[in-house]
Amino acid sequence: MQIAMVGLGRMGSNLVRRLMAAGHDCVVFDTDPASVEALSGEGATGSESLADLVGKLAQPRAVWVMVPAGGPTEHVVGELAEHLDAGDTIIDGGNSYYRDDIVRSSALADRGIHYVDVGTSGGVWGRERGYCLMIGGEGDVVGRLSPLFAAIAPGAGAAERTPGRTGEPAPAEQGFLHCGPAGAGHFVKMVHNGIEYGLMAAYAEGLNILRNAGIGTAQQQADAETAPLAHPEFYRYDLDIAAIAEVWRRGSVISSWLLDLTATALAESPDLHEYSGRVSDSGEGRWTAVAAIEEGVPAPVLMTALASRFGSRGLDHFASQTLSAMRQQFGGHAEKPAE
Amino acid sequence: MQIAMVGLGRMGSNLVRRLMAAGHDCVVFDTDPASVEALSGEGATGSESLADLVGKLAQPRAVWVMVPAGGPTEHVVGELAEHLDAGDTIIDGGNSYYRDDIVRSSALADRGIHYVDVGTSGGVWGRERGYCLMIGGEGDVVGRLSPLFAAIAPGAGAAERTPGRTGEPAPAEQGFLHCGPAGAGHFVKMVHNGIEYGLMAAYAEGLNILRNAGIGTAQQQADAETAPLAHPEFYRYDLDIAAIAEVWRRGSVISSWLLDLTATALAESPDLHEYSGRVSDSGEGRWTAVAAIEEGVPAPVLMTALASRFGSRGLDHFASQTLSAMRQQFGGHAEKPAE
Amino acid sequence: MQIAMVGLGRMGSNLVRRLMAAGHDCVVFDTDPASVEALSGEGATGSESLADLVGKLAQPRAVWVMVPAGGPTEHVVGELAEHLDAGDTIIDGGNSYYRDDIVRSSALADRGIHYVDVGTSGGVWGRERGYCLMIGGEGDVVGRLSPLFAAIAPGAGAAERTPGRTGEPAPAEQGFLHCGPAGAGHFVKMVHNGIEYGLMAAYAEGLNILRNAGIGTAQQQADAETAPLAHPEFYRYDLDIAAIAEVWRRGSVISSWLLDLTATALAESPDLHEYSGRVSDSGEGRWTAVAAIEEGVPAPVLMTALASRFGSRGLDHFASQTLSAMRQQFGGHAEKPAE
Amino acid sequence: MQIAMVGLGRMGSNLVRRLMAAGHDCVVFDTDPASVEALSGEGATGSESLADLVGKLAQPRAVWVMVPAGGPTEHVVGELAEHLDAGDTIIDGGNSYYRDDIVRSSALADRGIHYVDVGTSGGVWGRERGYCLMIGGEGDVVGRLSPLFAAIAPGAGAAERTPGRTGEPAPAEQGFLHCGPAGAGHFVKMVHNGIEYGLMAAYAEGLNILRNAGIGTAQQQADAETAPLAHPEFYRYDLDIAAIAEVWRRGSVISSWLLDLTATALAESPDLHEYSGRVSDSGEGRWTAVAAIEEGVPAPVLMTALASRFGSRGLDHFASQTLSAMRQQFGGHAEKPAE
Hints:
Chain A is α/β, with parallel strands linked by helices. Chain A has 15 helices and 8 strands. Chain A has helices spanning 10-21, 33-40, 50-55, 71-83, 98-109, 126-129, 139-144, 146-152, 171-174, 184-211, 241-247, 257-268, 284-295, 300-312, 317-331, and strands spanning 2-6, 25-29, 45-46, 62-65, 89-92, 114-121, 132-136, 176-180. The first copy, chain A, has an 8-stranded mixed β-sheet with strand order 3-2-1-4-5-6-7-8, sandwiched between helices. In chain A, helix 4 (71-83) links the parallel strand 4 (62-65) and strand 5 (89-92). Chain B binds chain D through residues 253, 281, 286, 289-290, 292-300, 303-304, 306-308, 310-311, 313, 315-316, 319, 330, and chain D through 253, 281, 286, 289-290, 292-300, 303-304, 306-308, 310-311, 313, 315-316, 319, 330. Chains A, B, C, D: One of its GO terms (biological process) is pentose-phosphate shunt.
């Protein structure tokens, strides 16, 4: 079927490629003409403006917007709405906050325009592996667009079938799911990323414990400010972290795609020295924590994982200074210099 | 090659089956004669006592002990040592604390007996999938036993090769790894399980947030003791948790074997009502936390995951009572009854 | 000076009493005539409606609103604004979200009405001890009202002077502080309560560890699902929690008012059996966590304390069920029944 | 009564001064003759060796050991035991691990020597304020020494009496408590310090949130790697942290001695720039966490506070590098440089 794509960055371009590979007809636009030209060369129909793009679509139209969340998405959706007609559909495939979907969907509904939000996971590997799609919006609209989602998703063969599931593979088994009304797709994607933060932290903390398993062989300092290591004989391992990540990939309970990637990173650079350790966070982890708080659901692991990222960027500095100042006040403890 | 197995529970029996399937010659013993008989029927050589078992082995002997950690392992290793000779090897494949390995290995070394500790992951699926093996001990001894480990491990084909790895697959790529000297295998397995706790908690917390995404549709209570939900319109989703776990299995960043199992559990029982939510912990998560503390390595996610398990069993009760008592004291706040 | 009080609950009434005791002239209103009558009998000027109250005040008027946050405050402020004139001031002394202050202050400024937000701490003890006041609003307006704040606050004598502070005691040393523009008072009060959650959790967790210090004397279960206590001989104390809270009140680093209250509660009921342990939270702890998240400031202790409260109310149930389900799937581990 | 003090550092010397001020007869020893001489000048009886010290005491003797925990205490106690007789008592007032007390007490009991462990809190302020004493050992021995403890403790007047307590003030109300048998004193002191870590972290995190309340006025970066601040208008406060710490000292729910000290530190240096933020930990916080883990008691706040200290010293570095490496692998996300 016909689909338009606005925003031809890495993600947008790769979506178009998967769609075309499945036989869909893609009309594309980007503010950078070179991106449009590149995909035109691969079989897409280029366009010069949003108006031009809309003009090249048959009704009811479907336009997939794949631009940065926040202002850019707001802008493109607003302008698109000017050109579209009742019955057309805008699909937001970016990382929008699900609350914006709810507001946006309601505003567009007043003009008869449908709105579908799609949380998309898969990263730089998605073109090859397919993308996992979490979808929000009206059921019949999402249903009509299913062939597009099926083309983008990995398909049922990407994982062994879950025991107990029978019959024709459900969409969830193919890698896409209509989660609920407006915002539900991005809500589920948000929590997906919140979980991702927790998983990543679990691996990272564990590997760090392994990496420091030789602390007992270091010269032990003995002063009133340092907790002595009671049994240095139990911490004398010099472990090969890259090999450990590798061995866990096969047969262990903690095998995962994130572990596969970790093994890749460690195979390239066993001590990861090219990373400074300042870890970014891009919104969804924060929003997940806020959702947990507002729901009153305890999510201490996910929140702690988020806090660790903030800490990695030095944002705990004043708190730490406060602790040292208190210790100085009550115990006369001077700070120890870095080793 | 020849190998003896002591302890023919589910794990021990399945190890024997994988070993025999690879052509190894297994001599087996268990205090339960029926277990011995069962495996004899499958091709193993049965024995009637540890002495009998040892007598049936050619030197240098290798005896794999697969009995519960702690007292039982201590007992079997001790008795075996009475019957073995210098040059023989005892392999502890259970869940021993790595510190016990260090002590035990040292004691056996005085008698010329080698000791190898093997952390084994794979659970009830290991017979089919193979087991991930984390191994500690002397390098040449471990090397000599490698054909056994290779038979038990999943093999290189169990996962796609990590980019950047070339040549003959290393043992880690086949699913077994010599991690270091005595205790190193169980140390790595311990941290493996600590990570497992963190991963599990991340999924569990995230799914719980999804499950409570409809809290805005419930009647909102308004009293001074309840934080009101400022925006109930953002929490009106009725999500299909089983389908969400399923869709994440394909193409998403958080796909993993634990997620596969979660999807299986939810496909069987979407609300998991047959579980009371009292979560056990079996030692390794605690030991991992202790190792982090002794190393001075921050592991707040792993420790918080552990604390959540303790809390699930009601062990936070007095702490919670204390909080309510404080609130009563300073604010005259009465506790609210359960809904 | 003259001041009006709207809302004569425990807090409002006690504020009026402290104000009158300091010689201020109080005009009071409440929807419950009995409350008005009671304070009239103590020297306040009663009124029958907001209009009546406003009519009894000389310009520029100052009206302190002490009603529940959210809808009730919104309503009273809105109605008051109808009756007030440019140059008058509304003081919100409740537990409003500071963001509401910012919005409200801006709306009232359009009509020339000043808005002052006052975070008030002191609980049921405030009438006697005085209240700690954290104040937001325009500097000159707050300055003009200072005699009122000074009457409500505990005064400089309530604590020993901080070393290094000299001269006339600053307002902060008397127990009230102009923190910044609109919302700053409630912002600081919000974080104050966030800290309170953390402090309370620290005491509660510690006391719980003490209470369970005799776990080594209990019969130890030995099964594969329970982490055995390696050294029961180190956990054989039967500690007197009430006495411990008491002894810490004098000379220890952790003495505090919250500890005083804890000692009181434990003196009344050493095992706190009358508390179910379902701990409420009333908003500020959540908002503090959200502020930390939005600022990108790591606050893992405060967030974990909040999560513990959620957990105390059973909101971790589905997460715990999920953990048990995973354990069943990978290890065949059945849940253990409650003891 | 007569008491000997071994170890005349700051703590030991100040204990002697409080004891002498209360009329007790002190015999003192330190490896540094100058310390002995100083206290002799204040009225103590000096000695030249442990043997000399013991020789100057009437039976049954009581010797208070106030030297660093671990090796030094072990050494002094061992040598003292050579010189003492059955019926004498050794008091360990240092920061010993309570498990060492249990072992030591048992060994000394074989020779008829009593052992009393005393956890001492009060820091550099103790001489003036008195020390809070948590005591373990045999009841009659502790009872006999009570006049000494009473002299060191702050006394009943140091805090208002807890409502509900009547009659002659109990020892706990005077600031010393016999907690239980050998080790109980240091066990309670250990948890005391664990709580201290949690309290300190709560204040530090909260103050850090306040300090960053102006983040909305900074230029906002907008890129895919940074979570944008949705509402900068809510984060435009420039708060006076020192004044806030001060105002909370009077009338607020979170007033405490630690807050008093924090206010002092901030009055001296409002931005604490002389502190690097590398926070030490000296053992008890770690042991408290281990006790919680071994008891199976959830202490997520105390453990998280501990982890934050480890993190402040950079021990999370490899974990953070791992997170950045994973993000690079799945999303092609480059790390952002420090601002």
